[in-house]
Write a structure and sequence with these properties.
There is one protein chain. The protein is of the alpha+beta class. Helices cover about 30% and strands about 20% of the residues. The protein has 9 helices and 10 strands. The termini are far apart.
Length: about 260
């Protein structure tokens, strides 16, 4: 039986690459039974080496709310809400976690030469963020293990750069969410609040239909591994020409309904 490390090498993971990982521990275990989170993380690190970069989202969405019900971000203690593997990874002693109250990242390897713990851009997934750094480098990739494009964080950066009509609009007013991040260090006014990503799956379908990416699977786990800059460039074209397809169907999502009614009707 192929090991997880052998699988990574087979799909093209190499040393020196800068890799953003989105993952489902449940799905990975369906393909590699009983594998631990430490084995998953360690295998990726072994292949990349410290000359490469391992990046994971550790988002907490600590936005200020009108009713005061918001959580307060603490870089050291706030749990990641983007999966069990990301929560395990952020606790590693040689991993740096950025300080964005809403969209922090856990970093290991080469990327830590460019970002440290104080990184907290007012555009959480835009200018000055890890997303911008990734697309500016040829040797950067996105590895998606057991997840689809609803987890495609780079899509929010593409929304800003295309731009889509609602790039600076927050669709979360109905939840009382403000354009303010809240941490133990105080409040941070934000330029953008990333919106709903459910319909990024339409971009995923487009990429598959155009044979730009392949819909791969290992047993019960779907996966993608692709160049970040290439998909970013494809995204710029798609997002400009098909912005309405990035919204959920009318009546199914209040956030997307508000964007449609304000910018497309």
């Amino acid at each position: 039986m192929m090991t997880f490390k052998e699988f990574l090498i087979e799909i093209g993971l190499k040393g020196n690459a800068n890799v953003l990982v989105h993952s489902s521990y449940l799905k990975i275990r369906s393909a590699f039974p009983n594998i631990s989170m430490d084995r998953i993380i360690g295998s990726i690190q072994d292949v990349l080496t410290e000359k490469g970069s391992l990046i994971m989202p550790t988002f907490t969405y600590c936005f200020k709310r009108l009713d005061g019900s918001n959580e307060i971000f603490n870089r050291l203690n706030s749990k990641s809400k983007t999966g069990a593997i990301t929560e395990a990874f952020r606790k590693y002693s040689d991993v740096k976690r950025t300080s964005s109250p809403t969209h922090s990242f856990a970093l290991w390897g080469n990327v830590t030469k460019y970002f440290d713990e104080i990184n907290s851009p007012t555009s959480p997934l835009g200018k000055g963020s890890i997303m911008e750094w990734l697309v500016e480098r040829e040797n950067s990739y996105i590895l998606m293990l057991g997840v689809d494009f609803t987890s495609f964080t780079l899509g929010h950066y593409v929304e800003l750069k295309a731009p889509v009509p609602w790039s600076n609009y927050s669709p979360w007013d109905y939840l009382g969410v403000l354009k303010i991040g809240v941490s133990v260090y105080g409040e941070q006014n934000l330029i953008e609040v990333p919106g709903c990503a459910k319909s990024f799956v339409n971009f995923e379908k487009y990429l598959i239909e155009k044979n730009i990416i392949k819909n791969n699977s290992e047993k019960n786990m779907n996966y993608y591994y692709f160049n970040a800059k290439q998909i970013y460039e494809e995204g710029i074209k798609y997002f400009k020409d098909n912005s309405e397809e990035l919204l959920c169907p009318m009546g199914s999502c209040l956030a997307c309904d508000s964007r449609r009614e304000k910018f497309l009707v």
